[in-house]
Amino acid sequence: STLKHFQMGETIFSEGDLGDWAYIIESGRVEVAVSIDGQPFPLGILTSGDVLGEMAAMDTAPRSASAKALEETVCVTISSRQISERVQDADPVVKLLLNTLLHRMRSTPQVTSSPPLLIPPERSPQLPDEDDQVLDKMRLESELRDALSNQQLRPHYQPLVHIKTCQILGFEALIRWFSPTRGHVSPGEFTSIAEETSLIIPIGQHTIQQACRDLVQFQTLCPDRQLFMSINVAPRQLAEDRFLTDLQTVLHRYNLQPAQIKLEVTERVFMEDPIALEMLQSCRQAGFQVALDDFGTGFSSLNYLTRFEVDGFKIDRAFVQEILTNRRTQILLESMLTMAHGLGMQTVVEGIETPEQLQVLQQSGCDIGQGYLFGKPLPFREIQQLLAQ
Ligand code: C2E
Ligand code: CA
Ligand code: CA
Ligand code: CA
Known about the structure:
A hairpin with a 2-residue loop joins β4 (29-36) and β5. 33% of the residues are buried. The chain is of the alpha/beta class. It is elongated. The longest helix has 22 residues, at 128-149. The strands form three sheets. Strands 9-10-12-13-14-15-16-17 form an eight-stranded mixed barrel, surrounded by four helices. It has a four-stranded antiparallel β-sheet with strand order 1-8-3-6. The protein has a four-stranded antiparallel β-sheet with strand order 2-7-4-5, with no helix packed on it. It has helices spanning 54-59, 80-88, 92-107, 128-149, 187-196, 200-220, 235-238, 243-254, 268-271, 274-285, 304-307, 317-321, 327-342, 355-364, 380-388, and strands at 3-6, 11-13, 21-27, 29-36, 39-47, 51-52, 66-69, 73-79, 153-162, 168-179, 183-185, 228-232, 261-265, 289-295, 312-315, 346-349, 368-369. It has two domains: 3-119, Jelly Rolls (Sandwich); 138-388, TIM Barrel (Alpha-Beta Barrel), CATH 3.20.20. Ligand C2E binds at residues 158, 173-175, 187-188, 191, 200, 204, 207, 232, 234, 293-294, 317, 350-353, 370-372, 377.
């Protein structure tokens, strides 16, 4: 698990070990030492809020020092994978500087005669808040890794309804995390952290698996029409070779049709990895639907639509919020709907909260509505009850 407890005198790691983990000290004191001619030389003492073991976790070389708990000590563990992925994704200049620095530190000959070096605190005193935020993010990421293996992540489902009849046509799977220590963590916050590393891949796989399994149950309560499930997919997930075959395996297991799955992607997919876009194309060819999420909020130009076909747009909540008060917003929203229909695409409008907003949208010719007016994201059982009514 994320937290590791060490007794007084216990070794945290030894010189020469492989650096699988780095540690953030939550409480206690740790002595870092190197051995010179078989004699241990203490380099310094680290305490709460300090990071240790990060070097070997960054470059996967053996540990150049040992660490021992001086008293009962609690640490948050950070996997070297978590760290090396961030190093890989860093700005190329930063990456080069970091590699140079690591190399130089590793190749400095051990001081044999001079007195031992004391490690000064590594935290920059000018930017404590920024450093704290970075540490918090690393902690959250570590906890998230545990949450996945402890079954703390579950999707909720929000109804997607026919705008004219308000009949439920499908659902969007929206992941939820209830952490025993943090309580409810906002999905906007933790999904963006997960998307920065490969953690989103097992999380996404888990969500797809649960959403498909639950869709089968919802479908049995709705024999008169075919329901669909919208699933949010990050570019990093699509960059995996196995994405499509994994998806098809799950579909096959639950005996679902590809047309029942709608992959929601944001415009980022057009700007990041070209491999992800190829994968998206293969998914469409295999019969899955693709929708552009948060449409109208990005900064990219529309020209990607000349090269890449999608099945639908999801127009962001920001437009609906102002539809009754801002004439310009209303015109923009109507133009997006016209454009989508001209391109033969289906439109979903997100964030409908009031009957007045619904009324305007019903006249604007959008296809599908989503929002608190029709239903909040709800757990599996509550959706079952809703459909059974
Ligand atoms: P999103 O994909 O744009 O999801 C729509 C968000 O709008 C959801 O927030 C939903 O609860 C909220 N929403 C829907 N109707 C209304 C409304 O009428 N009023 C208001 N105020 N909000 C409404 P949520 O569940 O907090 O999710 C936030 C974001 O987290 C999502 O934005 C999506 O980007 C990400 N996310 C959630 N689940 C997943 C997932 O399984 N995978 C990935 N990669 N990202 C996910
Ligand atoms: Ca979405
Ligand atoms: Ca959205
Ligand atoms: Ca969003």
